[in-house]
Every structure is written in structure tokens, then in C-alpha cells.
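Try this one yourself first.
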């Protein structure tokens, strides 16, 4: 345990103020219950959330009393420590137990108390800026999009600076299940989660019981015996991810002097860059050794069979054969890997990634064509936004500027023609306007601009670079480039598209809601099929 805590003292030299557990009010409890999803699922107590909501006027006072009693005594009620595990298949083979993710189904009352505890813990963490900036998972004002942007932009910047660039994409084996409770409690004490708050979490983690629920085709389902939980964090619970973030919070601090880590919960990814390929390999080996020891100290298991190394490069640059190993474990060299739902290849061409949504859109078009005779056009829009729009918009700011994105655009137009019962030779431009749907590249512009205005701190304005009072002073500063691929990235494309917006829309950038509305109206009116159309329209 000492080794697991040593890096905390090196990473955080300041002391944190002690947490305060403020009492809960009936209003707060009522708001939490109302925010819960109305479901009929239940565990051993047979009380679903739906019943909890209906009985709210009668249970609010005793439930508030129980929650306050728990906070002031530092004791988590015993009957709320029972959870039901529903195994969720995440890979193809049903016979391999490692292919299942255990999801906890909790009592309705425990959800209320856990949300109360979460709000107080999260307030303490945010006010004292405890979580490291490299961690993007399960945080307010963060997302997979921001995490992906930081990782991809760091790769493109290094390539633009003519550096050798590599990435290690780590895979932890069932990380939540390997969290050691005594190590977690000690780390919480370091972050000044002490006293009644620490006792409450100890009580929450100790003497927990769970059973496994197996659904089958027969009316009677199968349950295992109740067994005591010795380690790990419940998955499907609001507290589990927060505890895990604190459990690995010190990891970036031991490696960020020679690498750039991007972490989303347990998804650990590290980017390296250097002007010399030999020194790049040395730095990678140093980091691999450091994180391996850190994972071992925290009883987490780095799965070397699923951990990948990619060398990122421009098309004209030759790859260097780097064999990365730790002890007897060799890390796989690969040309592509999955990162938060995006498929990254060694040249960031997005070809491999676009193949996946293309397959989904082909299936969506098949469904739309078969259902068309029996569904009204109003219902078609719901189907379109569920099966087509959701696929198109995920990660579009990264791949929407790729030449391979035209494959997606063709499938989008095919779905529009099916909805409108039009032949393949008919132009879709007026259909897009009629249905209030943006063509792919117009949607790319909207998504890209929303990312820019919501993350202005990532960009530099001309006014920050010079004091000359020109008409372009409010615009974003265009960075110098040496690599064509960097032009296709979010940063450069975002700056260029933002600067070419109509002035009346650009002035709304501080009001995200108004900006989005005005820009969408403009894009629907233009219904741009390409970026060149957009830039040409603005120039006119």
C-alpha cells in the first residue's frame, strides 16, 4: 500500500481542506427522486423507482431522516448494500465468462442516498480541483469528444512539427473489479475525505452482498446465492466511477514530463513525440515501466495482449520498427486501434473508421425501405434521427473533413431519397431543406462550430497575438502549418470555418444557444454539399 500512496505525496504537494457533509433537505431528496428514471425493474425488495415516485408525498420525510442519520453517523444502511448482478455480453462468444460485464442493479432507496453522497464528494473534488486535467471521464463539462480532440490534436501538432510520434493504448483487465478497498480508503484520506465522510464510505464498501441474475427463456429466472463482496466497485452505480477516478488520479503525474496521457475513466492512452526515433523508444520504455509498476502497486492488471502501440506518421514518412516490451511482455504493433468509439489508424486517414458507420447506414437504409409503405413521413423523421443522424454525428468533427466522408454522404442521400420516395437521379438538396435536415458537410460545419464556441479556451484570437486594430482582430489566429493533414484537423479547420462565418452569426459566439440556432438556419438555407460551397458562398 505504501508504494500506491508514495506517488500521491510526490504529485500533490499541497494539503486539501477537509470535506464537509452538509445535511440534506426534503427539497433535495424530492428533486433527486424526481430525476430518477421511471423504471419497473427491482431487486430483492421488489420496490421499483416507479413506486418510489408515486409514494413520494408519504415517504419523503422518513427518507430524509434516514439520509441525514446516515450522513451524521457515517453509517450506510445494511439493507441498502445488496445488489443484483446482471451479466451483459460485450463480445461474441457467450461461453467465455470474461466476455461479460457485470452491471449492478441497486435498490431504489440506495440510489437516492448514493446521489446525496455523490453530490457532496463531487463538490469537494471540484472546489479543490483534485482531479488531474488529463482525466476526462465522468466529469462535468467533459466528454468523449473533448478527450478525443486533445489526443488527436496532440498527434497532429507533433506531426506538423516534424516529430516522430507514437501512442500506447493501454487495456486494463476488469479494472473496477480489482480496486482494493483499503488502498482506496487511504487515498480518500489523502484528499481530506476524512472523519464521518470516510467512515460512511468505509461502511458503504464493507459487508456488501450480491447475487447474479441469469435471464432465460423459461418463466422462472435463475439466481445465485448471496455472496460477500471482498473487493472492487459496483458497476452501474454513480459512486463507482468517481471512486475509480480518485483511485488512479496520480497516474498522469508520474509520466507527463515525457509524454502526454489522455485518460477516460480506466481507458489510458499515452502519446509520445521526439525528434529522434531512438530517444522516442527510450522514453516509451521508461513510461511503460513506470505505469506497469504503478498499476501493480494498485493491484490493477495491465493486459499486454490487448495493449497496442501505433506509430503515427504522414504518408510520405517511413515507419520505424520499434519493439516495445516490458520484462517478458511484448506490446503489439498495430496500424489501427479503437479509441472512445473512433478507429484511429497510423496516418489518421479515417478510412477504417468510416467503414463502420457505413455498414450501420446500409442496414438503416434497408430498414427504412422495408417500413416505408406503412409509416408516415412524420414518423420517418424519428426513425431517421435515431438510426441515421445519430450515426452520422458521432465524431463527425474528426472525420467529416476526410475525403472518405463522401461514402457516408452518399448513404445519407440514399436514406433521404427512400423517405421521399425519389429516384436515385433526383437531387436531394430541396429534400434536405423540406425535411429540415442538414447535409453531411453542413452538419460537419455545425458540429465543428459548436465545439469551437464551447471550447474557446483551446483557441487563440488575433487580439491575443497582436494589438493592431484590423477588421480581423476578433477572428481566431490561424496557426502556421507544414503538414496538409494538420489542415484537416479540428483545430485548423475550426479556425478557418469560424473566421469565414457571417459577421451577424460570429457575434453570437458568446451565446451558444443563439449561435447554434442562427448558424443552423443559415446552413439549412445554404444546404451546402461541400466545404468549398460554404467558403464560396461566404466569399460572394
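Now uncover the answer:
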Amino acid at each position: 500500500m505504501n508504494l500506491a500512496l508514495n506517488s500521491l505525496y510526490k504529485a500533490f504537494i499541497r494539503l486539501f481542506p477537509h470535506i464537509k457533509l452538509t445535511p440534506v433537505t426534503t427539497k433535495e431528496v424530492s428533486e433527486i427522486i424526481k430525476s430518477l428514471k421511471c423504471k419497473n425493474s427491482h431487486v430483492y425488495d421488489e420496490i421499483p423507482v416507479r413506486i418510489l415516485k408515486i409514494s413520494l408525498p408519504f415517504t419523503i420525510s422518513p427518507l430524509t431522516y434516514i439520509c441525514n442519520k446516515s450522513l451524521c453517523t457515517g453509517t450506510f444502511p445494511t439493507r441498502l448494500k445488496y445488489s443484483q448482478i446482471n451479466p451483459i455480453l460485450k463480445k461474441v462468444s457467450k461461453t467465455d465468462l470474461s466476455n461479460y460485464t457485470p452491471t449492478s442493479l441497486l435498490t431504489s432507496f440506495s440510489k437516492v442516498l448514493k446521489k446525496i453522497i455523490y453530490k457532496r464528494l463531487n463538490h469537494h473534488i471540484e472546489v479543490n480541483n483534485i482531479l488531474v486535467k488529463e482525466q476526462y471521464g465522468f466529469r462535468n463539462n467533459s466528454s468523449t469528444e473533448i478527450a478525443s480532440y486533445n489526443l488527436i490534436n496532440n498527434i497532429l501538432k507533433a506531426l506538423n512539427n516534424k516529430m516522430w510520434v507514437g501512442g500506447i493504448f493501454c487495456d486494463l483487465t476488469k479494472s473496477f473489479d480489482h480496486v482494493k478497498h483499503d488502498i482506496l480508503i487511504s487515498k480518500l484520506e489523502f484528499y481530506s475525505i476524512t472523519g464521518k465522510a470516510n467512515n460512511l464510505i468505509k461502511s458503504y464498501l464493507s459487508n456488501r452482498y450480491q447475487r447474479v441474475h441469469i435471464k432465460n427463456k423459461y418463466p422462472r429466472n435463475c439466481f445465485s446465492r448471496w455472496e460477500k463482496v471482498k473487493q472492487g466497485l459496483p458497476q452501474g452505480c454513480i459512486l463507482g466511477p468517481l471512486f475509480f477516478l480518485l483511485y488512479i488520479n496520480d497516474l498522469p503525474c508520474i509520466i507527463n514530463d515525457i509524454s502526454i496521457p489522455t485518460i477516460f475513466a480506466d481507458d489510458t492512452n499515452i502519446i509520445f513525440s521526439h525528434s529522434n526515433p531512438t530517444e522516442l523508444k527510450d522514453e516509451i520504455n521508461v513510461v511503460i515501466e513506470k505505469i506497469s509498476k504503478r498499476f501493480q502497486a494498485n493491484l490493477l492488471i495491465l493486459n499486454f495482449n490487448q495493449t497496442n502501440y501505433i506509430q503515427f506518421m504522414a504518408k510520405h514518412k517511413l515507419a520505424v520498427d520499434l519493439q516495445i516490451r516490458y520484462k517478458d511482455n511484448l506490446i503489439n504493433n498495430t496500424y489501427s486501434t479503437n479509441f472512445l468509439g473512433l478507429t484511429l489508424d497510423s496516418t489518421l486517414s479515417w478510412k477504417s473508421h468510416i467503414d463502420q458507420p457505413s455498414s450501420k447506414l446500409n442496414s438503416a437504409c434497408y430498414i427504412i425501405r422495408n417500413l416505408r409503405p406503412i409509416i408516415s413521413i412524420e414518423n420517418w423523421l424519428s426513425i431517421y434521427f435515431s438510426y441515421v443522424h445519430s450515426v452520422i454525428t458521432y465524431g463527425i468533427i474528426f472525420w467529416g473533413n476526410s475525403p472518405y466522408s463522401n461514402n457516408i454522404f452518399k448513404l445519407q442521400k440514399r436514406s433521404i431519397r427512400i423517405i421521399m420516395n425519389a429516384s436515385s437521379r433526383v437531387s436531394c438538396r430541396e429534400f434536405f431543406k423540406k425535411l429540415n435536415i442538414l447535409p453531411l458537410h453542413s452538419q460537419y460545419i455545425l458540429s465543428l462550430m459548436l465545439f469551437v464556441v464551447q471550447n474557446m479556451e483551446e483557441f487563440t484570437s488575433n487580439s491575443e497575438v497582436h494589438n493592431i486594430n484590423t477588421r480581423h482582430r476578433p477572428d481566431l489566429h490561424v496557426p502556421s502549418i507544414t503538414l496538409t493533414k494538420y489542415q484537416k484537423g479540428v483545430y485548423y479547420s475550426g479556425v478557418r470555418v469560424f473566421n469565414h462565418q457571417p459577421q451577424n452569426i460570429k457575434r453570437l459566439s458568446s451565446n451558444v444557444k443563439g449561435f447554434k440556432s442562427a448558424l443552423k438556419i443559415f446552413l439549412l438555407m445554404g444546404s451546402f454539399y461541400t466545404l468549398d460551397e460554404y467558403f464560396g458562398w461566404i466569399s460572394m
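Discussion: Residues 277-297 form the longest helix (21 residues). The chain has a mean pLDDT of 89.
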